Each structure stands twice: as structure tokens, then as C-alpha cells.
């Protein structure tokens, strides 16, 4: 693995541990982050090298990974990386972004004989730290098969779902599901508290049946404890839902519940909860 050169662009709450898993697995890793101090800290923790620009970070890389903020970041960082990626290399974008920007960057990569995968992830910060992410991938099968053994260092499951853009569309479905589930769980807990029930006991029972979900297993207790200063931020969720709602307008699908929950998250933001975990939907019911 030390003979495979990889780069990782973006060391946020997800990218930092993901790049760390690559280094721990023995890959030759070069990282880039706009906040230099964070990249320096990563090198102190995991070894490897730090670069000052995306372009220099991907020099001679076999596979370049990036996990940045939004469409504009994907374009800016991706294009700069593409300027210095060798023909035959691969660019993997783990950012949650639009399918349009994935297709745009995928075409540019194709024009330069660089493989491209749009590969958003699910599992949150804990999944990244534990190497247990789920990766939804769009791209060519031959490119996916080359990149998958490397992505497996931080993934519990990675699956190719279709052409470039398919990974982002699948991530939109993922976020649509989460939004509805968290709202349902919030209302159930609110109802139970108003009814005077021991909600901990109720959750213990219903989590063994058809109502069970990841959110119930991992968030019900913290919601009952009114603890929200962790996890996947409301601001990020609204960014993701806006992407899904925009795509729905383009393809003619109806996302009535998603649009409603998005407005509920706007209420949480107005309460000062932009950085609270998405489970903070419960707060607006109190």
C-alpha cells in the first residue's frame, strides 16, 4: 500500500479521520486543508505530508480524494487538483453536493483522461472516526473497482449505483429519509412526554419492533436529555435538503414532507441552533 500515492483535500470533521485511516493503512498520503494549522496537526498525528495547494497535493497521486463544503468548493478545489492530476489517475469526491456539479467535474475529468467518482458518505463523524462509513458511488465500474480497496479503509460498505451523479442522487434520498425519521421521532417523544409516559421505557420497547431506526437507537436518549451540541449540524442538513429540493424541482418529484421539515430546521436556526445536531427538531415542539 505504501506504493500507492493518495492525496486528501479537505480535513473537516469527516475528512480528517478519513485521511487518517488511509495513513494508518499504510498508504503514502499527502493532505491539503485551507486552514494550514489543521493540516500540520494531521501530519503530526498520522505522518505523511502536507501541501500548500490542492494542485501540489495531488502531484503524482494515483488517487485524489476530496471532502469539502459545497458545489462552489467542489468546483474550486476540484479544478485546481485536475490541473495537476496525471492521466490515468482518479479523483474521488466525497462531498455532499449536487448531481449537476458531479457531472460537470466528471466530464472535465473524462476530457483529461482522469477517472472520476462522486462518492458522498453517510455515517457522520462517528462513522468517519470508526472507519464505518457507507459510500454511495456514481461512475464507471472500472474506476470504482480500482478505488474501492482504498475507500474500504474507512468504509463499512461502498456500492456503485450508476453513472456519475448517481452517488449524489442516492445521498439526497438518504437525507430525505433522515429528515422524515427525525421529525417522526421528535413528535413521538413530544407526545410521550405530554402523555406522562416514561419515554425511556417506551423507547426500549418500540425499538425492538417495526419503529426501530438508527436515529431511535442513537439519538432518542440524547434528545430526552436535551443534548444537541454534537453530531451533524442543522446548517449542514439544510444545505443537503436544499440540494434535494432543487433536484426535485428539476425531475418533477414531490417532496412535501421534506420541504416541511426543511422549514422546521429553519425554525431551529432562528432559535440559535444552526450548529446543533439534526435531532434538535424536538426543541421547536417544547
Structure in words:
The protein has 286 residues and is α/β, with parallel strands linked by helices. It folds into two domains: 5-163, NAD(P)-binding Rossmann-like Domain (Rossmann fold, 3-Layer(aba) Sandwich); 169-285, N-(1-d-carboxylethyl)-l-norvaline Dehydrogenase, domain 2. The chain has twelve helices and nine strands. The chain has helices spanning 15-24, 36-46, 54-57, 71-82, 99-111, 124-130, 141-151, 166-194, 199-206, 214-224, 234-251, 256-270; strands spanning 5-9, 28-32, 49-50, 63-66, 90-93, 115-118, 121-122, 133-137, 155-160.
Task: Indicate the mean pLDDT.
Answer: 97
Give the C-alpha Rg. Answer: 20 Å
Shape: globular
CATH superfamily of the largest domain: NAD(P)-binding Rossmann-like Domain
| Number of distinct beta strands | 9
Q: State the low-pLDDT regions, or none.
A: none
Number of helices: 12
Strand order of the largest sheet: 3-2-1-4-5-6
End-to-end separation = 53 Å
Could you spell the SSE succession in H and E letters?
EHEHEHEHEHEEHEHEHHHHH
Which CATH class of the largest domain applies here? Answer: Alpha Beta
Q: Which fold name is given in CATH as the topology of the largest domain?
A: Rossmann fold
Specify the biggest β-sheet: 6 strands, parallel
Concise synopsis of the structure shown:
The chain is α/β, with parallel strands linked by helices and 286 residues long. It contains twelve helices and nine strands.
Amino acid at each position: 500500500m505504501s506504493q500507492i500515492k493518495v492525496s486528501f483535500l479537505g480535513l473537516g470533521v469527516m475528512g480528517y479521520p478519513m485521511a487518517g485511516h488511509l495513513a494508518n493503512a499504510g498508504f503514502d498520503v499527502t493532505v491539503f486543508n485551507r486552514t494550514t494549522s489543521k493540516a500540520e496537526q494531521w501530519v503530526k498525528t498520522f505522518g505523511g505530508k502536507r501541501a500548500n495547494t490542492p494542485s501540489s497535493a495531488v502531484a503524482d497521486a494515483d488517487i485524489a480524494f476530496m471532502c469539502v463544503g459545497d458545489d462552489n468548493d467542489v468546483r474550486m478545489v476540484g479544478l485546481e487538483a485536475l490541473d495537476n492530476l496525471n492521466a490515468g489517475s482518479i479523483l474521488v469526491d466525497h462531498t455532499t453536493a449536487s448531481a449537476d456539479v458531479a457531472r460537470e467535474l466528471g466530464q472535465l475529468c473524462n476530457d483529461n483522461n482522469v477517472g472520476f467518482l462522486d462518492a458522498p458518505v453517510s455515517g457522520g463523524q462517528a462513522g468517519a472516526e470508526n472507519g464505518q462509513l457507507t459510500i454511495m458511488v456514481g461512475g464507471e465500474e472500472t474506476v470504482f473497482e480500482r478505488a474501492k480497496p482504498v475507500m474500504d479503509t474507512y468504509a463499512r460498505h461502498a456500492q456503485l449505483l450508476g453513472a456519475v451523479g448517481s452517488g449524489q442522487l442516492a445521498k439526497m434520498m438518504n437525507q430525505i429519509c433522515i429528515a422524515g425519521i427525525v421529525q417522526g421521532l421528535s413528535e413521538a417523544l413530544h407526545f410521550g412526554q405530554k402523555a406522562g409516559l416514561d419515554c425511556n421505557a417506551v423507547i426500549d420497547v418500540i425499538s425492538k419492533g417495526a419503529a426501530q431506526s438508527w436515529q431511535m437507537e442513537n439519538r432518542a436518549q440524547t434528545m430526552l436529555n436535551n443534548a444537541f451540541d454534537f453530531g451533524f449540524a442543522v446548517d449542514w442538513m439544510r444545505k443537503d435538503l436544499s440540494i434535494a429540493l432543487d433536484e426535485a424541482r428539476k425531475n418533477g418529484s414531490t417532496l412535501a414532507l421534506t420541504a416541511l421539515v426543511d422549514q422546521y430546521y429553519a425554525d431551529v436556526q432562528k432559535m440559535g441552533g444552526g450548529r446543533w445536531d439534526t435531532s434538535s427538531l424536538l426543541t421547536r415542539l417544547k
